[in-house]
Amino acid sequence: MELTHVNKEGNAFMVDVSAKKIVKRTASASGKIMLQKKTLELVQSNLLKKGDVLAVAKIAGIMAAKKTEELIPLCHCLNLEHVDINFNIAADGIEIISKVITSGKTGVEMEALTAVSVAALTVYDMCKAVDKKMKIENIYLVDKKKEETE
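Predicted structure:
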């Protein structure tokens, strides 16, 4: 297997995608933040002092996806056409799912992963005063697609 961001001399570089065609690309990612039952109740009831946790985490995730190229050194700058964050409340925490869409020459998986990561970190930040046992886990790429043109 060959690494795409390292040349033969072992130096990092940005992959040249100039010869690729512009196609629709989508990616989705998921992760979970484990919360104590009382914390989950506070989030669901919107009773935390810092405000609406899920609304703020959603905005943070969307903003993070748009800033991915500033956070990941060799990531390409992409014109994102859609970013969405959804939350599934479970008995032991909150699952965070992102979906990112663009028309471009390279995929949007890093943007999807960044969106989930920052949304989870935002939940952590907003709940840390009431829950010292939170744990962010299982952040992974769920799906990535490229629509081939005819």
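Summary: Helices lie at 37-45, 53-66, 68-71, 109-127.
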